[in-house]
Design goal:
Blueprint: H1 4-44, H2 51-78, E1 81-83, E2 88-90, H3 94-99, H4 107-128, H5 135-156, H6 176-194, H7 215-235, H8 244-270, H9 275-290, H10 298-321, H11 330-348, H12 370-400, H13 407-412, H14 414-419
Antiparallel strand pairs: 1-2
Helix pairs in contact: 1-2, 1-4, 1-7, 2-4, 2-5, 4-5, 4-6, 5-6, 5-12, 6-11, 6-12, 7-8, 7-9, 8-9, 8-10, 9-10, 9-11, 10-11, 11-12
Length: 443
Amino acid sequence: MASPALAQEELAPASQFVLDNLWIFIAGVLVFFMQAGFGLVEAGLTRGKNVSNIMMKNLMDMSAGVLAFALVGFGIAFGGDELLGGWFGFDLGIAGVEETSGEGLLPATFFFFQAAFAATAATIVSGAMAERTKFRSYFVYSFFLTALIYPVVLRWTWGGGWLAQLETPFSDFAGSTIVHATGGWAAMMGAIVLGPRLGKYTKSGKLRAIPGHSIPFVVLGAMILFIGWFGFNPGSELAADEFVVPIALKTLLAAAAGAVTAMGVNWFRDGKPDVSIAANGLLAGLVAITAPVGAVETWAAVLIGAVGGLIVVFSVSFFDRLKIDDPVGAISVHGVVGTWGTLAIAFFAKYDDAFLGREDAGLFYGGGLDQFWTQLLFVVVHFIFVTVTAGALFIAIKRTIGLRVSEDEELEGLDVREHGAPGYSHDAGVPTLTGATRSPSGS
């Protein structure tokens, strides 16, 4: 019979295995819960007549996206067969889920966590295309992004493809570009192909604000996303170890710095602190720190988050000047700030985060420019790939089944015309608290 000490030593690896899988499962649940946050932010920043449509899109981003990722995308990203020297993988179907795993994780655990990320990339696009997109067309887009576009990016990087094989490997710890900028640049192409909402710009080109219907939704959604990010970033460690809490701390501080900076800059520029800008600043801080969180010191995380908050204020205005109508600021928060977070690694990287080739890789720590050129290479190639493929997809949808609803449908609202029922009962012919009945027109 084994001694108690020997039995304890034999149990330790098994216990760590169970703990790792349990933690990554919980982290995946937190990331999936972020779908609720995205839905609330988007619903709050748009009009009440479209809230059911928005929630339905977020529901299908998760549902259709997970199926597409399981059937096709996961095999492309993590399959055993490499095509074209690591540019693509090839394993189709659920079999790929059963055979592929991260180190120390059950295959099912690894897939569960990665599927949550795929759904996140898809749902980012919804906000930029809000209030004017046909639901069936959006459903088609969501399927193809999670089945083909996002998995190719994933293969290049976390899937061990060509960027991971460079002499100076590319680093993006939890997906500032891999996840967020993929969604952000696809969102930009969707908004461009769709065109702006009716009434967003005057005939002379002047911007006309279209206020959202619920600031409380925006703040609640942002806070849900904030909480979910403690699964997103610490979970990307793919283990329950001593680095999880420091990663969570840096995530917390970057988010706080982003929110305060965005609020302060907006307050100074416009004379009043705008709630939606502060909420987007919080999200910008989170997106910015997502790539470098495993490699930077705490003070650098604060600075990176603050710069993210600064960027988002001016980026939103920039895209408005280009007449690219993005109701929620998704392009700025996820595309532009995601790019910043990815490049920030090249300057501030102090620690080896399992993706970097060495410690002290950042320019400010004597690492030279090698990491910068690798990060920049990916940023450029990624931007070209996503804009071309997503743009082609949206144009193909537009020319076949149509991408945009009619003017009458847009004016009436997508809840009734696309889904057959309004999002709020007071918009339908239902009894009120006084017993009176309101017609759909409110008369």
